[in-house]
Structure formats: structure tokens, C-alpha cells
Specification:
heterodimer, A: alpha+beta, Nucleotidyltransferase, domain 5, 3 domains, 7-stranded mixed sheet, 6-stranded mixed sheet, 17 strands, B: alpha/beta, Rossmann fold, 4-stranded parallel sheet, 13 strands, about 40% helix, about 15% strand
Chain lengths: ~500, ~350
């Protein structure tokens, strides 16, 4: 069966199509369309033109789904629509024009989807996941497995830019203020510092856009099949370049024009994080929320409404409204307070309660998934403090980690032997493993979902052209002579360069 | 408020109609406004030149071809390269401030929009209006200048057909369109061409030769339209600069002359070629383009009045609307080889040079 997931972000709509037969999940198609929603705002509302463009692009992607014979399509939106006042209007317009129900993904679920999609990188040395989106920042320690170790900040690139940057690009002074602000936020959240994380995994569209800019700056020939890595030294130089060089706008325009406003603020924050963590390896992942979300819905860990292409109806299950956060920061603060209060309450529980809790834990383990727990934590109030105690004590089984040493390549040059970060398994782990298998996120299952596809959307976006069909033609004598000419001239180091045609119309 | 207007890149019919419409909207709707004409496109802005445009200089130019402001081509790649301690981009930004502009209208094609996006990135208030005879600007259904060019090309091909038929010849007609084949496609369908070679569909030399031979034997003559950017399927795998190099070695810039020689040798029939050239750019705009240009210009001025910058006017369906200039900068709208118009053309027997 074929599934599609379309994600609405601050600068684009992106889609994956996966062929899932229960045993194997393979991503067979990717697409991306630029849509800078920032430019279609009137105050906190998206204009009618913005809604029109959004629905058109969803409609175009729906047509692609039909062509690819997709059976079920999911449409999700993450941070960008959280603070939009006319969210309901957008939802209705999209449903009316395309039939797609819009699933709103809150910050916690977004972090979980990122985690699921990139769990493979848990095999890397002390790895941490960083997803810096338009309206939020998620940091997830891939070696840990409890929700508390996922840190969520309710500011993203759009917020940083709006708060500190007056013009299009930040000045050096503004960059200092950004660094100060994020460092203070990180200190408050007790974000780990040096020597805790060795590998940073950057995920999300902003990360990929920063990487595209980096590859041109660092003169790297980006082979779509190879691991995307960043050198911290070169990245520091890139940040300086983005703050001072007269060519910075051109560099961004050549590689990520739709993120013109956001590349430099994002790069500044990434640099702060890399420095803070003291990471040795920086990797940019191609996998993100869409891949993780697809896995989550297929495994039943996440609810969502989908468009059924077979009978043109809407199916699935809507997520609870309580877990939505369309009001931005205020509600999140309340949720955090609720959680903190609940945690304090749970700390005062008696031994009897903790005994009954542990029994409950055993019962809960067999039935609750990570997402359900996350929803409860975010949405519930103090009445469920007992369950929160359970959540706190509950450890989700880690994905299967190889016990042997793993060879990884650092920056494509050296090979490092890194031991698996998993703890030693208890003696009867196999029995427990089989009992909990259906409710855990196994690494092998996730890997199946996340088979890399050819980077169709990237090359299409860069060239701005549709794919041109080319046919092999029998080479005539004339053409072969021309080829020889080319080779001859290359050997002779042609002096004259042909004039390029890249002039303004 | 001060509004600057410049026209950049290749000229086309309708530019003056846009200037007129912007001017009339501003004079009707915005008090204490001044319009500054910047000569020669970005070249004028780089030099810091500008002059006040009075209403009597633009109110009666709707039917005039060309541009009263003059135009020039400025390569995007050179915009940020430092010359004598400063770049062209910096000069433009400084001169924008020196001229006291509150907004700049840039009338131009895809390349002009790339530079416009760059200016926006540096904080200038820019509004673009899409101009090209090639109709290849992403995000808009149609650009002004295109329809007039189609009509001119169609009339030319009509005239060429009669002389070609009289002599029993094969005629290659070169149409403008370096990246996209829209102009060739529309004028070819309108004029009833036998074969169209467009950049989006690399053609087989062997197949085209065979087609030409067969068609002239059946009909007595053959009309083949060749877009400027058309390429052989054997060339398609090379990068653009290598293709340009090969052609330069042969003393050609397009594939038309080469094709002419090949077809002539193969068919043993008189084969001629006619390059329509700059006739497609010049002359009075047709009624459709006058209306479209006026609507786009007026809408762009309205956007400025509303304080919406960093956008470009566009046509979507039957509406005039706008796109973010960053969403379209550097992107082209090409003919879809599997799209409905190509499919239709094939269904009525028009050949595209495929194997």
C-alpha cells in the first residue's frame, strides 16, 4: 500500500510517498514546493493569497499522489501554523479545495517524529538530535529513552529573527544578542555542555538549507548518496561570512532563496549549540518529521486523519484537541507548570502508592505507546499525577543496538570504532523484548521505513526545471568528432571561455 | 512618497503600458507622490541616475513599443563582485537611498527578478512585474509581451509558408526562446507548422531528417520551427557551457544552421532558414498585452500603496495576484513535455523531433 505525507512548514510544502507492505517500507518519491508563508501574512493571519497558494500546492501534490497510485494521504502542519490566528479558516479551505484533512502536530509529537525518523543515529557516538524549525527548537538525546530527555524550546528561527533582526540580515551586534539569548535559554533548561555529545544530527528543512549554503561556501561536491557532514571549523567561518560578507545574500539566494531571512539566524544558533556541546561530528539528516510521522501512524503510535484516495473520503482518527497548541507560548507555559507541579506531587507519594504504581507500570507498559504517554503529559492536569509518576519511572525499551563495535566514518576520512551506547541487557531481556516488541520502536523497523530515495526534489528545486526526458541517440561521426574536440581543448587548456547567457531579461 | 521605475533586460511590447498604468494609478490614488524614472534598467540605478516622470510623459504611451526609460542587461553573477572597493549591489542600495525612494518597481524577466530579490534581501522595498516574450517566469500563467510576440511570429510564419509552398522547399524558422519553448509552441500551433523543436524536448537529428524528407514528399513543402534554445539529444548530456563551446567552434550560436545543412544534404531538397529575431520584441503591443500590462501595472502600484513589498505581480487563473519574489527568483516555467498542450499538438500530427 502506498502512503503520502505532506508537511506544511514556514518556507515550503514537502511530500514523501512511501510504499509500505507491512514488512518493508520504502520511500519512492519526494517533492518540495517553495512557499514563504512569511510573505503572505497580514498581522497574524495568512492572507487569502497565501491560502490560495497553499491549497493550490496541496492540490498539485494530490495530483501527484493520484499519478503514483497512493491509497492514503496525510497532511500535517507543525510549528508554523501554531500561532496563526486564522488556522481554522486555512483548515476549512484546504479541506474544501482538496479534501485533505489537516492534522496539526504539536511540539512534543514533532520531537517524537524526529526521534523516530532518526533513531538510526543512536548508533553514533553520544548523538544528539537538533531540529531548529520556524517556531520551535527540539533537542533530543538519542542515547536516552525517556520523554524528559527531549528538550523543547518554543522559539524557532522566525521568532529569533523577529526579536533581534531589524533588516534582512543580522548585524554583528544583533548576532551577539541572539547568542546571548539562546545561551540564557539553554542555561535555564540545563542543556548539557561540553563533552556530553560527540555527534550532532541536524534535521529539518532549515538544517538542509544551511547545509546547501555550507556546501557552496566550503566548495563541497555534494553527492546525494553520501553522508552529509559539516566541519565545525568551516562552519564557524561560514557564520562569519554570513555576518560580514558583501556576497552573503548572493550565497543564500543561490542555494536557499526561500530561507533568505532565516539562514543566518539559524546558523548562529547552530554554532552556539555545536560550541556548547563540543561536538566532533556534525551530520545533516535527510529524515525528519514526515518519515517519523508515517512510521508512527503505521505502527499505531500516532493518530491522524487521512485522505482515502480509493473512495475519496476522510478516514482515520483525529488527535485530541487538548494536545493541540494553537495559542503559542501561554498554553505551553501552563502545560509545563502542570507537569512540574505533578512531578512535585509525585515525589511526595508514599511507598504503598509507589508499589501500586509499579504494578500499574507493568500493566501500562503493555498497552501504552510513547506518544500516548506524551499526550497525557502535555494535555492532562494534576488529577493524573499518579500516571505522571508512572511515566517518569517508565523506561521505554531502547531500539535494538548492536553489541559489537560499530565502524563509522568521521568526516569521510577516518574510521572510528564506537561502542554501542546501549547499556548491557539484563539476563531475561529476550523474553521481555518479545513481550514488548509490538509496543516499542525497534531500530530495524525504523530503518525499513527510512530507506533513502533519490533526491528528486532537491535537484528539481535547484534547477527550477522539470525533468527533461533524454534519449540515447546513436552518436554520429560528427558528434564524436566534436567530443574529441572538447577533449582536445580541455587538454590544451582553452583560453577563451564561452560567454554565459545568464543575464537579466 | 517617491516611486522609482526601471525596465531591465530584453525589451518587449507592453513595457510602456505598464509604466503608464503605474503612473496613472499613483497620480489618481496616492497624494504627494513623485515618480522617478531610472534609465537603462539596473545600469541607471548603479550609476545613480533618475529623473522625474511627469504625467504628460507617460499618459499617452499605451500603444508604444519598447520602453521610454531604456533598458540594459546586467548579469546577476556580477552584482556582488567588488569593483574598486564596492559592488554593484552596494551601489544600487546606496543610490536607492540617495534618490530618496520609498519603493522601486522592477519590470523584467527571470534574471531581473533574481536581482530584485537580492535588493529586497538588502532591505529595499521592491515590487516586480513579470516581463518577457518567452513566458518563462515561474509563478505566473502569462507574462506581458508574450502574446504580441506570438502574433508577430505567427504572421511571419504565415508569410513564410506561402513562399515555401511555392518553391517546394523545406524552411527552418528560428523563434526566440533560449530556455523555454512557449513562443515556438504557441506560434507553431497558430501557424500550422509541421514540426517544432523546443528546448524541453531534445530532438534526434536522424529522426528530424527523415521526417522532413517524408513530409516534403507528401506535402510538397515542410515548415520546421526551431526555438533558439533547441538542442540535439546528443547535446543534452553536456553542460551548457560545453554546448556553447561546441557551437562556437562550428561558428554557430543556435542549432538552426547546422540542422539546415544536415537536412539539405539528406533530403536533397532546397532548404532555407529564416531567423525572425528582434521583430518578436519590437512594435506596438497587441490589445491583449495592453490590457494585461495595464492591469499588472495598476495592481503593482496598489500593492505599493498597501505597503506590500518583496512581491511580484502575477496572473493566476483569471486573476491578477502576487507571489513572494523569493519564491520565484531563479526559477523558470518550462513547457511540460507530457503536458496537455504538447499532447494536443502531437494529436494533430505536429512532430517534436523525438525518436
Amino acid at each position: 500500500m502506498k502512503y503520502s505525507v505532506i508537511d506544511i512548514s514556514s518556507s515550503s510544502l514537502s511530500m514523501i510517498v512511501a510504499d509500505a507492505d507491512g514488512q518493508k517500507n520504502e520511500i519512492i518519491f519526494k517533492d518540495r514546493k517553495s512557499l514563504s508563508l512569511l510573505h503572505y501574512l497580514d498581522g497574524k493571519k495568512i492572507t487569502s493569497r497565501g491560502i490560495e497558494k497553499l491549497t493550490k500546492f496541496v492540490s498539485d501534490m494530490k495530483e501527484t499522489c493520484v499519478r503514483l497510485e497512493v491509497q492514503k494521504g496525510y497532511l500535517i502542519s507543525t510549528a508554523v501554523l501554531r500561532s496563526i490566528e486564522n488556522f481554522d479558516e486555512i483548515k476549512s479551505a484546504v479541506a474544501e479545495k482538496t479534501g485533505f484533512p489537516l492534522n496539526f502536530i504539536d511540539g512534543t509529537t514533532e520531537a517524537f517524529c524526529d526521534y523516530v525518523a532518526n533513531i538510526y543515529y543512536a548508533t553514533y557516538e553520544r548523538s544528539v538530535l537538533i531540529d531548529f524549525g520556524g517556531k520551535s527548537l527540539e533537542i533530543c538525546d538519542l542515547s536516552k529513552n525517556s520523554k524528559e530527555d527531549m528538550i523543547f524550546f518554543n522559539f524557532g528561527t522566525l521568532d529569533v529573527r523577529k526579536k533581534f533582526v531589524k533588516k534582512i540580515q543580522p548585524s554583528k551586534k544583533e548576532a551577539k544578542k541572539i547568542k546571548q539569548y539562546v545561551n540564557e535559554s539553554f542555561d535555564k533548561a540545563n542543556l548539557p555542555e561540553k563533552n556530553v555529545y560527540a555527534t550532532a544530527i541536524m534535521v529539518g528543512a532549515t538544517a538542509r538549507a544551511v547545509y546547501d549554503v555550507y556546501t557552496e561556501f566550503a566548495n563541497i561536491d555534494d553527492d546525494s548518496g553520501s553522508l552529509k557532514t559539516i566541519s565545525y571549523k568551516k562552519f564557524k567561518k561560514l557564520v562569519d561570512y554570513l555576518l560580514t560578507s558583501v556576497d552573503r545574500s548572493k550565497l543564500i539566494m543561490n542555494n536557499a532563496p526561500e530561507k533568505l531571512y532565516l539562514i543566518t539566524p539559524a546558523a548562529i544558533v547552530f554554532k552556539v549549540l555545536f560550541k556548547r556541546f563540543g561536538t566532533k561530528n556534525i551530520i545533516v539528516s535527510d529524515w525528519g518529521v514526515k518519515e517519523g510521522y508515517l512510521h508512527a501512524v503505521l505502527s499505531g503510535d500516532e493518530k491522524g486523519l487521512f485522505y482515502n484516495f480509493e473512495n475519496n473520503t476522510v478516514g482515520g482518527e483525529a488527535r485530541d484537541k487538548e494536545s493541540y497548541n494553537t495559542q503559542g507560548q501561554e498554553k505551553k507555559k501552563d502545560e509545563k507548570k502542570t507537569l512540574n507541579k505533578a512531578e512535585k506531587n509525585s515525589a511526595k507519594k508514599s511507598k504503598d502508592q509507589s508499589k501500586s504504581t509499579s504494578k500499574k507500570t507493568d500493566a501500562v507498559k503493555g498497552t501504552e505507546s510513547f506518544t500516548q504517554i506524551a499526550e497525557k503529559t502535555v494535555g492532562d492536569d494534576t488529577e493524573n499525577s499518579e500516571e505522571i509518576t508512572v511515566i517518569k519511572n517508565k523506561k521505554i525499551k531502547k531500539p535494538d543496538s548492536p553489541s559489537e563495535d560499530i565502524k563509522i566514518k568521521g568526516n569521510g576520512k577516518t574510521e572510528k570504532k564506537v561502542k554501542s551506547s546501549s547499556a548491557e541487557k539484563p539476563a531475561d531481556s529476550t523474553k521481555k523484548t518479545s513481550a514488548k516488541k509490538s509496543n516499542t520502536v525497534s531500530k530495524s523497523k525504523v530503518k525499513e521505513v527510512l530507506t533513502k530515495s533519490s533526491d528528486i526534489e532537491k535537484s528539481a528545486e535547484k534547477s527550477g526545471k522539470t525533468a527533461i526526458g533524454t534519449e540515447t541517440e546513436q552518436i554520429t561521426e560528427e558528434i564524436s568528432m566534436t567530443e574529441k574536440l572538447i577533449q582536445k581543448n580541455k587538454d590544451d587548456q582553452v583560453k577563451e571561455q564561452p560567454k554565459t547567457n545568464d543575464v537579466s531579461e | 512618497m517617491k516611486f522609482g521605475i526601471l525596465t531591465s533586460g530584453g525589451d518587449c511590447a507592453g513595457l510602456n503600458a505598464v509604466i503608464r498604468s503605474i503612473g496613472l494609478y499613483i497620480s489618481e490614488n496616492i497624494k504627494n507622490a513623485e515618480i522617478i524614472g531610472i534609465p537603462d534598467g539596473y545600469g541607471g540605478l548603479i550609476r545613480g541616475e533618475g529623473f522625474v516622470l511627469k504625467e504628460n510623459s507617460y499618459s499617452d504611451i499605451i500603444d508604444r513599443g519598447g520602453t521610454i526609460l531604456g533598458t540594459s542587461r546586467q548579469a546577476f553573477k556580477l552584482m556582488t563582485i567588488e569593483e574598486n572597493g564596492t559592488s554593484r549591489l552596494e551601489k544600487m542600495c546606496n543610490n536607492y537611498k540617495k534618490l530618496g525612494l520609498d519603493c522601486l518597481f522592477t519590470l523584467g524577466g527571470a534574471g531581473t527578478h533574481k536581482t530584485a530579490a537580492l535588493l529586497c534581501a538588502e532591505g529595499l522595498n521592491v515590487i516586480g512585474i513579470p516581463k518577457t516574450i518567452d513566458n518563462d517566469i515561474y509563478g505566473t500563467d502569462v507574462t506581458f509581451g508574450f502574446q504580441t510576440a506570438v502574433e508577430v511570429a505567427t504572421e511571419c510564419i504565415d508569410r513564410i509558408k506561402t513562399t515555401t509552398a511555392s518553391h517546394g522547399r523545406i524552411m527552418l524558422v528560428e523563434i526566440m526562446g533560449n530556455k523555454a519553448g512557449w513562443l515556438t509552441l504557441h506560434s507553431g500551433i497558430a501557424a500550422g507548422a509541421d514540426c517544432m523543436l523546443i528546448p524541453e524536448i531534445p530532438f534526434s537529428l536522424k529522426a528530424v531528417k527523415e521526417f522532413a524528407k517524408k513530409r516534403v514528399e507528401e506535402k510538397g513543402c515542410c515548415i520546421i520551427l526551431v526555438a533558439e534554445g533547441a538542442l540535439l539529444s546528443s547535446e543534452a548530456k553536456y553542460k551548457k557551457k560545453d554546448r556553447v563551446f561546441i557551437r562556437t567552434e562550428r561558428g554557430e550560436s543556435t542549432v538552426t544552421l547546422h540542422l539546415n545543412e544536415e537536412i539539405s544534404n539528406y533530403t536533397k531538397k532546397e532548404t532555407r532558414c529564416s531567423v525572425l529575431g528582434y521583430m518578436q520584441r519590437g512594435g506596438t503591443p497587441c490589445a491583449f498585452d495592453r490590457v494585461l500590462s495595464s492591469r499588472l501595472g495598476g495592481y503593482a502600484a496598489k500593492l505599493a500603496n498597501e505597503g506590500r513589498f518583496g512581491v511580484t505581480a502575477a496572473v493566476s487563473g483569471n486573476h491578477i495576484t502576487y507571489n513572494s519574489v523569493f519564491d520565484i527568483a531563479g526559477k523558470y516555467k518550462l513547457v511540460n513535455p507530457q503536458g496537455p498542450i504538447v499532447k494536443f499538438a502531437k494529436s494533430i500530427g505536429i512532430y517534436f523531433g523525438e525518436e
